[in-house]
From TrEMBL, chain A:
PANTHER family: ECF RNA POLYMERASE SIGMA FACTOR SIGR, RNA POLYMERASE ECF-TYPE SIGMA FACTO. InterPro entries: RNA_pol_sigma-70-like, RNA_pol_sigma-70_dom, RNA_pol_sigma70_r2, RNA_pol_sigma70_r4_t2, RNA_pol_sigma_r2, RNA_pol_sigma_r3/r4-like, WH-like_DNA-bd_sf. It comes from the Bacteria. It comes from Marinobacter iranensis. Belongs to the sigma-70 factor family. ECF subfamily. This is Sigma-70 family RNA polymerase sigma factor.
Automatic annotation (TrEMBL), chain B:
It comes from Marinobacter iranensis. It comes from the Bacteria. This is Zf-HC2 domain-containing protein. Residues 8-41 form the Putative zinc-finger domain. InterPro entries: Znf_put. Pfam families: zf-HC2.
C-alpha cells in the first residue's frame, strides 16, 4: 500500500486503508464464507468465524508485507481462527478419532463401485456420476465427515494446502494428515455413494442381483 | 539395465498422494508413465481428479447479505 507512488497520497490515510481493506474482504467474502461453512457446518457459526477472522486480520494488518498476498494470508487466519476454536472443543473427541479402528469405509472407492464390467457398456458411469452430482450433495457429504477428517479434507482438498502446510496449521504430524486425507476421502466417497443411492439417483449404478454383493 | 515397472496396485495405493503432488519426482514420473499405458488406472486418476475439482468448488458459497452488512459495519467501527 505504502509502496504505491501516487502523486497526492504517498501513504494511505487511515480511512483509505480501511476502504481498501473492506474492498478486498468484500471481494473474497463468498470464499471466506464457503470455507467457514464447510469447516463449521452451520451458517451461524460460519458467520462468526468469518467475523472473528476479519477482526483478527485487521489487528495484524501491519504484519502483511504485501497486499498481493492478502488472499492467502486471510485464509490462513480463517483456518487458525477456526482451528483454535475447534481445538478447545475437540481435544477429547479428537482422541477418539485417532483410536477409531480401520473400517471398510476407509478403503471405499467410488470409482470401483462405478467402474464395473456390467456397467461399462452403458458408457462411462463414473463420468455420469460426477456430472449429475450437485454442489449441495458434496457440501452435505463433507458435513457428515467426523470433525478430524473434515478439517483435513477442507484444508487439502478444498483450499489446496499441501500436507505439510496442513500439518503446520493443525499442529499434527505429517503421517496423521496423510492418513486423515486418505481415510477422509474414502468416507466422503462412501457418503456420496450413499446419498446418491438414497435419492435413487444411482439407479444406473446399482448392482444387479447376483453380482458382487455387500452393503452400499 | 532392468526397469522396474510400477504395478497397478502400487498406483492405486499412491494415487491420492500423486494427485496432491506429494510424491518425490521419481515416483511421480513412474506413475505418469504407468497412466500413459494403463487405461484402467488412467480412468481412475481422471475420476479422482474430476471429483477433486468438484470438491474444491464447495468452498465457494454465496455469503448472506446479513454477513456482508455485519462485516461492513465492523470495519467501519475499527
Ligand atoms: Zn494400471
Amino acid at each position: 500500500m505504502a509502496t504505491s507512488t501516487r502523486h497526492d497520497l504517498p501513504v494511505a490515510s487511515p480511512q483509505e486503508r480501511k476502504d481498501q481493506f473492506e474492498k478486498q474482504v468484500a471481494h473474497l467474502m463468498d470464499r471466506l464464507y464457503g470455507t467457514a461453512l464447510r469447516l463449521a457446518r452451520n451458517p451461524d457459526d460460519a458467520e462468526d468465524v468469518v467475523a472473528e477472522t476479519i477482526s483478527n486480520a485487521w489487528k495484524k494488518l501491519d504484519q502483511l508485507d504485501d497486499c498481493a498476498h492478502m488472499e492467502g494470508w486471510l485464509f490462513r487466519i480463517l483456518h487458525r481462527t477456526f482451528i483454535s476454536q475447534w481445538r478447545r472443543r475437540q481435544c477429547r473427541q479428537d482422541k477418539e478419532v485417532e483410536l477409531e479402528p480401520e473400517s471398510g469405509d476407509d478403503r471405499f472407492s467410488l470409482f470401483e463401485k462405478l467402474h464395473q464390467p456390467f456397467l461399462l457398456w452403458w458408457g462411462a458411469p463414473e463420468k455420469e456420476f460426477i456430472n449429475t452430482l450437485l454442489q449441495e450433495d458434496i457440501g452435505k457429504a463433507i458435513d457428515h465427515l467426523p470433525d478430524a477428517y473434515r478439517v483435513a479434507i477442507v484444508l487439502v482438498e478444498v483450499e489446496g494446502y499441501s500436507y505439510e502446510e496442513a500439518s503446520r496449521l493443525l499442529g499434527l504430524p505429517l503421517g496423521t494428515i496423510r492418513s486423515r486425507i486418505s481415510r477422509g476421502r474414502c468416507r466422503l466417497q462412501k457418503a456420496l455413494w450413499q446419498q446418491a443411492h438414497d435419492a435413487g439417483l444411482a439407479n444406473c449404478c446399482s448392482q444387479p442381483p447376483g453380482t458382487r454383493g455387500g452393503d452400499v | 539395465m532392468t526397469e522396474s515397472w510400477i504395478s497397478c496396485e502400487e498406483v492405486v495405493e499412491r494415487l491420492v498422494d500423486y494427485l496432491h503432488q506429494e510424491l518425490d519426482n521419481h515416483t511421480s514420473a513412474e506413475i505418469e508413465r504407468h497412466l500413459e499405458r494403463c487405461h484402467d488406472c488412467f480412468s481412475r486418476a481422471e475420476f479422482e481428479r474430476r471429483l477433486r475439482e468438484r470438491i474444491a468448488r464447495s468452498g465457494q458459497q454465496e455469503a448472506p447479505e446479513r454477513l456482508r452488512r455485519r462485516i461492513r459495519e465492523m470495519i467501519d467501527h475499527f
